Amino acid sequence: MSNINYQIHQDEQNKPWILLIHGLFGSLDNLAALRRGLTDDYKVLSIDLPDHGNSLHTDEFSFANYALLVSELINELNIEILHIVGHSLGGKIAMQLALSQPDLIDRLIILDIAPVSYTPRHQLVFEGLEQVPLATITRRQDADHYLQEFIKEVGTRQFLLKSLNQDDNGWHWQFNLALLKRDYAKLSAGLDSKSPFIKPTLFIKGELSDYLMPDHKDRVMQLFPNSQLKMLANTGHWLHAEKPALCITTIKRFLA
């Protein structure tokens, strides 16, 4: 049985498969807008990354291990080949899977991330998350109060609070906070491969985001020589949530 939590959305068996992979601190619900827009034409597989959502917590982060766990799920479901859409950290995992097991993938779509190293940019998020006294809060609004000191953007706090759950043992973050903080440098690192992924690849950039920049082009083309870039105007890093219809249309045109 897979260590990856997943959902399958389909109404016909003969549709092609498409896998959706969310980003850091997220869960499979983050790409729900894309899922709803793609189920007419595809069998959609949505997953929680390891150390996120309801998937297993691991002992150490690595792109290779995450990609291996995702590939094991694909094989367990007897999916021979599929398209993949990955956002942010999910995009890096998708790229790693494409580089290590290209035969599994037909076409690759990467949302606002490059296969490069990034300077730390989540320090305040980690500080805020660690300041929430999970043993004493009684509601999500209490946690939001503590996060406000470190995270000013309401949307970011709301996104994080989606992963704050309560059970018989009290409140807890669904993501593996301790591991993600400890191994943050590893998940911020770039990707490497002896062989490029030569199948069609689409990078979609949010115009207002600084995650996918012109100086990343050389590295992108080294690893993904059969790639193209599309930009969504007036969108940031969360382009799939800001303009879901346009993002879905862009993906469908590429896959058509």
Which features does this protein show?
two-stranded antiparallel sheet, 11 helices, single chain, AB_hydrolase_fold, seven-stranded mixed beta sheet, hydrolase activity, globular, Epox_hydrolase-like, 256 residues, AB_hydrolase_1, alpha/beta, 18% strand, Rossmann fold
Structure, explained:
- This protein is an alpha/beta fold.
- The chain folds into two domains: 6-118 and 190-255, Rossmann fold (3-Layer(aba) Sandwich), CATH 3.40.50; 123-182, no CATH class.
- It is 36% helix and 18% strand.
- The chain contains eleven helices and nine strands.
- It has helices at 32-38, 63-76, 89-100, 123-131, 140-148, 154-161, 177-182, 184-187, 217-223, 239-242, 244-255, and strands spanning 6-9, 17-21, 43-47, 82-87, 105-111, 164-167, 170-173, 201-206, 227-232.
- The strands form two sheets. The chain has a seven-stranded mixed β-sheet, sandwiched between helices. Strands 6-7 form a two-stranded antiparallel ribbon.
- Helix 9 links the parallel strand 8 (201-206) and strand 9.
- The radius of gyration is 18 Å and the shape is globular.
- It starts with 5 loop residues before the first strand and ends with a helix.
- The mean pLDDT is 95.
